[in-house]
## 1
Amino acid sequence: MQRFKNILSSCENNNDQTVAMSFLPHQSVWLFVIGIFAILYSPVSLSRATDKQIYHQIDQFFTPSTLSRQQQFKELKWFSEAARPFEGMTLYVVSERIDTHEYEAVTLSRAFFELTGIKVIHELTGEDDLLRKLVAQSETGVNIYDAYINDSDLIGTHYRSDEVVVLSDFIEGEGREVTLPTLDLEDFIGLSFTTAPDGKIYQLPDQQFANLYWFRYDWFSRKDLRERFKAIYGYELGVPLNWSAYEDIAEFFTVHVRQLDGKQVWGHMDYGKKDPSLGWRISDAWLSMAGMGDAGLPNGLPVDDWGIRVNGCRPVGASVARGGALDGPAAIYAINKFADWFKFAPPEARYLNFTDAGRWVSSGQIAQQIFWYTAFVAQASQPGLPVVNEDGTPKWRVAPSPLGVYWEEGMKSGYQDAGSWTLLKSTPLERRKAAWLYAQFTVSKTVSLKKTIEGLTPIRKSDLFSEEMTRRAPQYGGLVEFYRSRGRDVWTPTGTNVPDYPRLSPLWWQHVSKAVTGELKVDVVMSNLAAAMDKQLEEIGLSSDSPCAPKLNLEIDPDIWINRPGAPKPERNERPPGKTLSYEEAIKAWH
């Protein structure tokens, strides 16, 4: 109880460190508070759940499921039995704040306690704060949390570190007796994102969402708007295939249409506040969508979507002078477009962060968004919203994002977040085992389909191809079609070229914000960013004895690298004719 009071106290004194109640709607705040205190003050049962109670849990919490009721019972019974040595323990875990993790913090932690007698205080906070906590535990060796759900973007950090538990080894060794027999790792769609070049699994996917093109399907289907667009631009209004078409559509709705359904409308939406989330906006594959890096999946090699070149497994530089691409023509083109397109967005967009901007599409005033996180599908699907039909189906759709002029076949096509369970060696073994039980519980087949429906961040193939998801697919505007296609393999997280995500990621927003405000020209911004990235890479290399630590190339004339095949790439025609497809044709590209 004292630890929970300490968390609350720290939240009152630090705006960056928050638990779930600081951002949830009032009703959800009270649900969270009631849930936490119910756990804290409930008398601890020294016996595990009875068979009757397990069946009651299945009916109350975990329907529907891809498992039969009897299979669910067997899985939950296994958790109840495996938790015997840890009954009465209180665990502390932390994740970022999205709907899926709210569901875990409020509902699943309670269900796990009732099943096992293990209390879980599941804290929700901002991604930046989550990283600080993870780094603090890694550097001090003090067990602050028993488990973390952090993005697989840290895979390059984790496999170069000696602080993270290698899950594939843990499953075969110390964690064998507490590893769910029906965990079925091959069923996880994001396992390649959490597997390092050494072939070992470092994290277990808990939720996934992609950045896709979002647009008002109902507006794009209107005959009057289609005829008007074609008269102005000479081709069909549809899903844009390239950035030229996206720009034309943005201009069309903002400048020419201006009002629909009695509201002012804009042809573009984004966010530009000087905030850590601005960094994610760019580092989360914006430059790859422009075509900055090399071909390769899940990430480009030898140059990835951060512009970092590797030699073998060693990062050797981000600047063009060292063989990287972060200040090359493709990167400058990408940031120029990002900054310029704010003229087609609501004036507030420049001052919004990730969370605030995510709500805008639900207002009914946005025509399209090139890069929309599907974590917001649940929010944009609520009955009564201007973007939802009376029958509950959306007026919007998601489709493949358009690609920049430097993009080439074989490159990743966008970003996918894969928030994943991570265990640290500084967590005592018994606590680590108990936390591993909770982690597996939140992703078990008994739980995962219902959790997918709640948060719409799917992780299992069996859930995606279930009859239940087929029935619900029309409600989700193309999300199910995306995850049933090969798109889920070419929309990928940050890869292993990035050797220390917590140290390198702040550089993005600190520098790119100056391009958004106009404080510096884009070429200067990217030159400064590349130099800062090189400096940090060098420092990381000097402080690490990992065989995959950075070791920078010597600087040479950038033109020598530019004129070699692959990234960095020479300047191209950056405004080719716009190209579009119908929605039905565009989603076929995923298959």
## 2
Amino acid sequence: MSLPYFHTVILGTGAASLCAAVRLKRSGIDDMVIITDNRKGGTSRNTGSDKQTYYKLSDSTAEPDSPYRMALALSGGGAMHGDIALAEALGSENGFYHLTALGVPFPFNRWGGYTGYKTDHDPLNRGTSLGPYTSRVMVEYLEREVERLGIPLWDRHDCVSLAATEEGGKKRIAGLVLLDRDKLQSGESPLEGVLCDNLVFGVGGPGGLYKSSVYPPVHVGAIGLALEIGAETANLTESQYGIGSVKFRWNLSGSYQQVLPRYFSRDRETGEEFPFLEEFFSSQKAQTRAIFLKGYQWPFDPLKVAGEGSSLIDILVYREMEVLGRDVFMDFLTNPWEGSREKFDPSGLDGEVRDYWDQSGLTGATPLERLEQLNPGAIQLYRDHNIDLSREPLQIGVCAQHNNGGLAGDIWWESTNIAHLFPVGEVNGTHGVYRPGGTALNSGQVGAFRAGQKIARAYAASTLDRSAAEKSCRESLERMEGIRNQFMASLNPGGSDQARYREEMQNRMSRCGAFVRDGGTIEAACGEAEEQLKAYSLLTVTSPDQLPYAFRNRHMALAQRFYLEAIGDYLSRDGGSRGSYIVRVGKGIPLHGKLGGEWRSKPDGGELRRFIQHLRLEGERIISRWEECRPVPEEDSWFEKVWASYLKGEIFSPRD
């Protein structure tokens, strides 16, 4: 019996995947299916921040904006192609107004203008927000439209492998292997193959790779599936990290910092508490200013460490946890410095802090009282997750939050080296070193629209060699069956080592591959990751129900190896501290006079920002290449020429 076939398969139920499904359906593609392991999972639906931002072209203010200005802002941080930045900018209004047409209630003024505010690395007021749950609301409205349009959705299906074929000397997607969770206890194999002409790959960022993470626990990512078939990556070195809570994973930006909580650490054995920030800040005024600015400057930034800057806090939190082995907390019942060297003195606050408090009417005697005045929903958020800030401090860490890199795609969000594979959302590595806050949501919506345009207009007719695709997909299915059979032959009801295997990955990534990096540590970590990947075949499972977890470990282990190799390759090319990480070197610049000699940072010379790092798997080797960034295009906008090019389909052809 032949394997089932769909013209287009959409993997994932995040904001980008659901948008792609809606766009495709409206463009006349009916033969498609959405496939997910958990339709209520994913980052889009289960994460947010103090004021989760959507970044869009500013079209409702007196100050003029243009797609070209926006493209320069998007690519200005380096390591981003200008033509992709222009595509994101030109598609911004389309993506945003598509959401408002679905009913997403972005705020507007009495004249209908969707005005905004400045966000990180943003020269204009391009940010807008629905509050803490912007992406969740987007998902809910997109899901409603998917249901209205009758687009089929297969829930509880894990993708465990992809299949590709050769076409004209280049790989193309051919299908995928799924694990049906509803068949785990049936006695029959839960694995099945599906063929497709096109795969929209919306599996999110590498959330499961880190111990300290604000990715929701239900999201682990699946980039390793594409890496295994040779898909090229872009900028895996570039992620964002910042302070977040660990019991309930949430960014601690904005009002959580602006009300000035007290930071302290606790010895895991004795319970002794340490007001560790006070040793490294010269005064109460300097420390409280840094805490306050952490609200605006949430992601760690090596440029904001010196001079008692806000990112010094991230370094000190990491030191307490990873070097001194202590747990770290934010306390909303006690003011900074209170009960220590001197009493907290609101009158001595930095002018910027004082002005903000006065403008916001903050008069509370404690951080919690001030948070109640400024943002009571921020308190309720934690109550909703069984954490009462009036009774307990908030345990924190420096957490992975977003991967600016991912799979390499072109201006249509199609993989650069595997045809008909369209990574959308966070798994597509469109962003560079720095990105304006909120661009991820814009990029996901624009990417979904662009991918849908190419599939509907250039790939509407099936070109899949069904015979070759079936052969490739069945071979992949047989490999996965072999892994399943091995697990089933060695069931270990007393306890398997799958959880420990993943924990080892997560600890290594948070220790070596997060925001503190150095050459010696990375070299050792790369070797350990390679050995861990080889050791996968020795693992066991407790029961068939653990198979989804075990198959995820397989592609996560490959992803871990790629991320560490990317960092190692960058450091081998004399890369320095940039974006959201520091590179430590023995003869670097001291980060602080009271930190030891190991805390010296190598500055970023900027040379590598002109390039994008690409990696791909060849056999068992990871090959790297560095591509110079393409500038923002200066296109001929003469209408008749554009129209002719459009009618001939030339707009979808690769450019030299």
## 3
Amino acid sequence: MPLLSRALVVVLVLLTAACQTVPRKPAAQFSEMDAQTLMLQGDFRGAANAYLTLARSDRSQRSRYRLRAAEAYREEGDQAAMQDLLGDIDRAKLPAEDAFRVDLIEAELALGRGDAVSADALLIEPPSGIPADFGPRFYELRARAKEAQGQTLAAIGDRAVLDGLLQDESDRSANAAEIQRLVGTIPEAELTARLRSAQRDDPLYTWLLAGARAQAQARGSEGYASDIATSRPIEPGVAPIVLDHIERGAYARVALLLPSKGPLAAAAAALREGVFAAHFAERGERAAITVYDAGGTAEEALAAYRAAIDAGAERVLGPLSREAVTALFQSDVPRVPTLALNYADAPALPPPGSLQFALLPEEEAAAAADRLLARGLRRALVLVPDDDVGKRAADAFGERMRGQGGKISGIATYDAAASDQSRTIRSLVGLEQSQGRAQFLRGLLGIDLKMEPTPRSDVDALFLFARNAQARVLLPQLRNAEATRYPIIATSAIYGGSNSAADSELDGVEFAEVPWILGITDATNIPTRAQLVSLRNASGPAARLFAFGIDAYRLLPHLEWLERNPGRPVIGATGALSADPNGRIRREPAWARYVGASPRKID
């Protein structure tokens, strides 16, 4: 065959092939099920093309099929194709659910270009509710939009709802990490205020509680020692108010929740006597008090609280243990205005309308720092027992001193079970170091230098935490080490509650004390110790708890006023009392000095 003829044959073959098409399914035979199948198989671009084919063949469903194509492109990650399709969708021809789906796509695109305000405006829950399949996507998008606008709590709220909708464990973990990150950005004061106002069955509450606990642990405290040391809730220069002069709530039934046995039973007995002493000293009509046994566990205390509410209690005093107070404030049990008789573990806070009250050594330690600083004594030594209470007192004293420009020149702990603390004391005040320098110079110079060890000169005062019996042992040793050349300030633990000749060792020591014990309360309706001399718990070591019970009863009618007026002090048997913004009653004590083995009030 000639070359030209063969060439013509090839051309004809190519032309014939060009006129043939690859067999395809006719558009009329293409179904929506086919497109959905491609989606399920992960062929998102193929699904988009299928939906677009359907849109061209059925103009009545054109907008709906173009929306489905846009959603397929979303799964493919092709935002440009999504945007092109949205511009040609007639929302008026879409059912309500599809209009909602368009809003989701447009919100996602708005977030992609940094327009959180437009995205948030699109993410409105429809009157008929959010379709179940789109709930996770809706709340995740809205959380992102809220966060981008600085609405952190709203973003956490949306992610808390999302947590209950997610089924996949890895998705839930990722969302939980986002919630924890967001909670960690909230300032602690704002977080605790929001936590206090949250309902206990609010999905947000658990996340806020965990975040507040993490912040407390980051401060190195699960309790309130750090907060007590760094804040002064009572307004400076404001004279305490007589409780009778402020508003009081009206109620007829009070429940008192105290344990009848166990390690807190003795404290509860003294506190209970103080409550009833104040009750019978009250003028006019008095509310009825019913005592409930709070038991020895948090569960028993909660059961007693429920029983009191069921019986018609309108106000509650208690419970007493820290664990029970924490459980109460973290529970969703129905509550009436309550004054808890301890501080809950951080960060559990009382709900609005309730407060918490406690006698804490760290509060007195912080007050001791204030007193020294007010006198210009800015450099202090610290001597405390080697136990948890001593550590909390030392931490609170040190933080308050440093927070106001003071300095801890040295700190030492002693074994409360040992009588000889001379070496610890000599080291604390610098005698050991001074003696070491003298020995070094003798060796260096080769002569017998006459040098007496002297206490350190970079000290203005000494803070001592010691119970009465311990202090009697420590003071002579402090005197031998010349440490009494510094002013010594202590907490009320140093006073045993009754005068003893053996306390002459303590002469000169200044200490915080409950005004009622010193006989200096100014309110006329507070029963005095002299009037209650026949009551066993009104004197001796239990007297402070007796006074605490007096104050607890007297504060109960005024919870609302105290909460609305944080920092405004009132006159109490245990000191000047005020509420802080976190729902705690804070106390500033009176001050006394040992003179002739007895405490004497000082200004």
## 4
Amino acid sequence: MSGTIFFNAIHAPVGAHSSLTLGCKGRLGGLGRELGNPARKNLFIGLENPKGYFEALPFWEGGTDESLRFDHMKEKTEEIQLPLRPFADSAISREFSVGRDIWTAGDFRMEILSPVLPAPDPAKAGYEAQKFAYCPAVLVEITVDNTKCDHARRAFFGYETDGLDGVFQSQYPIGVVNGRATALFTDDPNAIAGCGFSGQDILLQKCIPNLRFGLGTCGMLMFTAKPGEKAVFHMVAAFFREGLVTTGLECSYWYARFFKGLNDVGAYALANFELYRNAILDNAAKFDSPNLNDAQRFQIAHSIASYYNSTQLLDLAGKPLWIVHEGEYRMMNTFDLVVDQLFFEMKMNPWTVRSELELFVDRYSYVDQVHAPGDANTLYPGGLSFNHDVGCRNAFAAPGRSAYECDDKPGCFSHMTHEQLVNWILSAATYTHQTGDNPWGDVPERCFDSMLNRDAADPADRNGVMDLDSSRTVSSSEITTYDSLDASLGQARANAYLVLKSFASYLALVDLIPANRRAEAMKQAHLAADSLVAAFKKNGFIPAILDGSCDSHIIPAIEGLIFPWILGKWDLMKEFLGLLDALKGHFTSIMESGECLYADGGWKLSSSADNSWLSKIYLNQFIARKLLGVNAAYTGVSADEAHRAWLLKKENLEYAWSDQMTSGVAKGSKYYPRGVTSILWTLE
């Protein structure tokens, strides 16, 4: 592996919004439930050295002696015996891939197996299939090679809790349990579970009954490898939250249908350990290809792990709701993430896409009016569109509103009305094309009318470009998903990025609207294509904003091209050869000039903004290489290696996979799910 091995990676069950995160040095990992960041707690994982002290992976650091809160007579300067030492960096190796994270140090080996599994459709899958997939646990296998030692040695895995609930021992399965929230369990009958103020306290404890100590905030499992044997121990990290867990809509976790609590989760996961291993490895193979380079494999594994951490399958009065939280922000089903995570979800579990889209139609849609820029008082018919998200941090927003969008708010936090309209169309069309299921009724035709109305109030003035803003913006204007960028990608009106997505939406609608309107949709597609081609012919590139207000160069001008391909309409692009030539000419121009490249070979989405998003880079890399046929130094392995190097910068290591990068440093969108656009690479 190129770069440091000490980066945090997330290991998460399907739909439980929980994780075991580890990899960074120090107190920066742990077991977390419903967090937008690592738990930032100590993990004590290692093996007794033949010389009698204990060596651990460096996922811990010293701190305040917790016992001082209780023992006020104890000297604060008293030297505390520390039996725990970190393994030398040179002794540690790591193998990180989809579904697996393997750490080796001397005679110690730990393999973490993350449930990279499809989410079965509750309407079709049986009880056992759902129970297996939605079990909220992560599996860990510890191997101790004690074949060259003539005495027994202890391996251990302990974690510091958040201190909100007590830590106690479980008798069956053997384990340590933090309230009703998290736990470690094993099926090794000889294992010892211990509780204490710290991992050091537990390892030093000679009096076994005292391992039931209930005041500390640390729990640990300890395993004994006999002299001369190679011992293998299985354990699981379990998560649970019972009862209602959301507001706005009252939902519980779907997994609560199958499990009564932590002990039930632990016993089931341990009993099915080998079945999980086989299923995880089988599914991991779906994300490999002989054409991938090592930097791509790393980013695919990292991004998939981060995606699962944000997933949440909820039970709304017997109806399953698929929710993906937005990383550190924890906004729910953010629509501009839904449309990018679409490719991964359609590969793994298409029903989740339908769940997301139906929730937007049923509760998070609205009908507005539109106005021209600078004239908020003159309103024209608008139409149907959709909110930016459905809520935040387990709180569902009110119907027709989002957690993010504000009326009459310039810049960030304005509405993304047109963007979310095309996102719904493209997502629904992809779902229907790949499944044959068309549950949308008249919604696509209503979306088409809404698209037309946002182009121009007078049909004679239409050019395939969004020129009118939602009445919800009042005196301001709409923005795009690239909300934190400058006008090159922030402004929605006449934005080249949205024009191509609009073009793709008109093509997509041809299969969704009544036959008597399909020619009208094709006409709009041609108008949008002509607008982009005209801009290219005039400038030699496609300006970010077609009305001339911003001449920045943007890579995402090509982004919408993914949908004619994913929808099986690539042959139809023979009608738009001029558009393909313009997009290829635009892309090669801005890349060969270096305006959209960093010095390290990484991609810069906009020539005028130092804020580049890895998920969008992955998507546009695929489009450039696969669809536009641009195979140059700047589209090759050097770019992939630069982007991997960003993730492995010191400043970024704690947050696992992150999206928004300023000169390669994560400034936002940390601990993020959208990087699964990387799975498109497997199709090249």
